[in-house]
């Protein structure tokens, strides 16, 4: 896929790259991390625009239960092998104008790039929310320009979703200048609900 890096990843992983267990995160609720991912993926320079969010179908399902204050900022590109009709029936409360259903990661990527490059689509940026296969493909295809990584300092006992290929060798860890959204949390170590974790930001070196 011949495209310049254009998307941001937001991801929380343990020390062995575990991300999920029984359709949740293995560490349950971490309020500061929750705020970190929602704030980054909803902060817009132009409040009339939206963020395009690429997500696998499983990751999408709990996200749509978030309130309108978040949903109104996002345009979803949901990856699923199911048909558009099946999924629109399942998520019938959602505004079809703000949810695209696609059948592959490649289609998701093309749709996101098209929206980003089309001024009338009013898309300001693109975030990838997961899960495993979309994360792995985005990195392998070198489509990622920034990674917002929450590193959990633990090896969780239970995990059924783990990213096996997560190579950040093309990236440099950065500490953002003050003034960028939540920059004061870069490198911060947080202790919450019995878990210790750190916010890390990585930028692609050649982007
Ligand atoms: N820690 C974190 O930062 C983080 C982030 C995201 C998710 N999670 C966790 O990870 C788990 C979910 O991740 P997951 O990897 O299991 O699921 P996922 O990628 O969110 O969803 C899997 C489903 O998405 C569709 N899909 C994904 N990639 C596809 C592809 N390349 N082509 C076609 N369809 C594709 C398929 O949908 P159909 O079955 O409809 O065909 C597949 O069954 C949950 O436990 C969630 O809480 C954690």
From TrEMBL:
A biological process from GO: tetrahydrofolate biosynthetic process
Domain (DHFR): residue spans on this chain: 6-204
MF terms (GO), sorted A to Z: dihydrofolate reductase activity; NADP binding
GO CC, any one term: mitochondrion
The keyword ATP-binding belongs to this UniProt entry's keyword annotation: no
Associated pathway: Cofactor biosynthesis; tetrahydrofolate biosynthesis; 5,6,7,8-tetrahydrofolate from 7,8-dihydrofolate: step 1/1
The reaction(s) this protein catalyses: (6S)-5,6,7,8-tetrahydrofolate + NADP(+) = 7,8-dihydrofolate + NADPH + H(+)
EC numbers for this chain: 1.5.1.3
Keyword Lipid biosynthesis: no
Swiss-Prot/TrEMBL keywords: NADP, One-carbon metabolism, Oxidoreductase
Stored InterPro entries: DHFR (IPR012259), DHFR-like_dom_sf (IPR024072), DHFR_dom (IPR001796)
Top-level taxon of origin: Eukaryota
Stored Pfam families: DHFR_1 (PF00186)
Stored PANTHER family: DIHYDROFOLATE REDUCTASE
Protein name: dihydrofolate reductase
Organism: Rotaria socialis
Lineage of source species: Eukaryota, Metazoa, Spiralia, Gnathifera, Rotifera
């Amino acid at each position: 896929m011949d495209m310049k890096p254009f998307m941001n990843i937001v991801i929380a992983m343990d020390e062995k790259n575990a991300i999920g267990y029984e359709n949740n995160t293995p560490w349950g609720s971490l309020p500061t991390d929750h705020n970190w991912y929602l704030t980054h993926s909803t902060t817009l320079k132009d409040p009339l625009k939206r963020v395009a969010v690429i997500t696998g179908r499983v990751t999408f399902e709990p996200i749509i239960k978030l309130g309108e204050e978040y949903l109104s900022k996002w345009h979803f590109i949901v990856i699923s092998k199911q048909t558009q009709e099946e999924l629109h029936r399942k998520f019938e409360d959602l505004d079809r104008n703000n949810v695209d259903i696609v059948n592959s990661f490649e289609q998701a990527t093309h749709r996101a790039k098209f929206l980003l490059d089309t001024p009338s689509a009013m898309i300001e940026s693109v975030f990838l929310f997961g899960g495993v296969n979309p994360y792995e493909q985005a990195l392998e295809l070198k489509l990622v320009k920034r990674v917002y990584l929450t590193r959990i300092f633990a090896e969780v006992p239970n995990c059924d979703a783990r990213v096996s290929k997560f190579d950040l060798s093309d990236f440099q860890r950065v500490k953002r200048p003050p003034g960028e959204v939540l920059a004061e949390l870069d490198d911060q170590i947080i202790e919450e609900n019995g878990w210790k974790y750190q916010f890390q930001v990585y930028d692609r070196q050649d982007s």
